[in-house]
Amino acid sequence: MVRKFFVGGNWKCNGTAEEVKKIVTVLNEAEVPSEDVVEVVVSPPFVFLPVVKGLLRPDFQVAAQNCWVRRGGAFTGEISAEMLLNVGIPWVILGHSERRSLLNESNEFVGEKVGYALSLGLKVIACIGETLQQRESGSTMAVVAAQTKAIAAKVSYWDNVVLAYEPVWAIGTGKVATPVQAQEVHLELRKWLHDNVGAEVAASTRIIYGGSVTGANCKELAGQPDVDGFLVGGASLKPEFIDIIKSATVKRQQ
User: Fold this and answer.
1) Residue 216 CB: number of other CB atoms within 10 A?
2) pLDDT tens, 15-50?
3) SS3 125
4) For the whole prediction, is pTM greater than 0.85?
5) Rounded CA gap, 236 and 199, in Å?
6) What's the sign of the alpha-carbon dihedral 26, 32, 35, 41?
7) Ramachandran region, residue 151 (left: φ > 0; alpha: ψ -120 to 50; beta: rest)
8) Contacts of 247 (CB under 8 A, 6+ apart)
9) CA 179/CA 158 separation, integer angstroms
10) What residues act catalytically?
11) Do you know which Gene3D superfamilies this protein is assigned to (predicted)?
């Protein structure tokens, strides 16, 4: 089964109104593979979602970086899935390691958020990944399997889910999982989906890699058979994000 390459740009807590407009201008002017080759989704901070959606080229989509676990109400500072849909935002990133570690979001809480967002029709980039201590202790697969299990328990329709494997030790550190390391975990995740969810879901679900992805390393990573794209952090704010999008052609040539 051919899985369309997916490139997400997580802008995190960065940018001013003027900087965001400049980034969008660079994206709009870029020559990249067509929509049938690569799906591109960028995720600006909440306050810039409407302006980015309004200015961005139509073949790129927009994602929020988080949403609340249930319907809105007395939850100061939160943004509900209903609000995102109301302003036309189709995607949301959930379970990012920064939220898991800094805000103590548990596996179960992330699973609940994923399930609720999907139930309303949002598409979800669901993040998983181990810390350096967990990798060095040999528990990588136990950790990501537990994270994936909590998500899978709340998912009945996988077509709107992209799994993002982001080893925590590689996020923003300049350290990158080698192509072999990335492929190893992605393959094991696909096996987990096969054994615990089903063969069709395992074959069709896109598993993307995140963690210091750059224009320099993206092609080699993209060449791995079970790496279906990237969730890009810092590099998504720079022109090299275009090179990362273009790495989709590596997959097409295989």
Assistant:
1) 12
2) 999 999 999 999 999 999 999 999 999 999 999 999
3) strand
4) yes
5) 33
6) negative
7) alpha
8) 5, 7, 218, 219, 221, 222, 230
9) 26
10) 96, 166
11) Aldolase class I
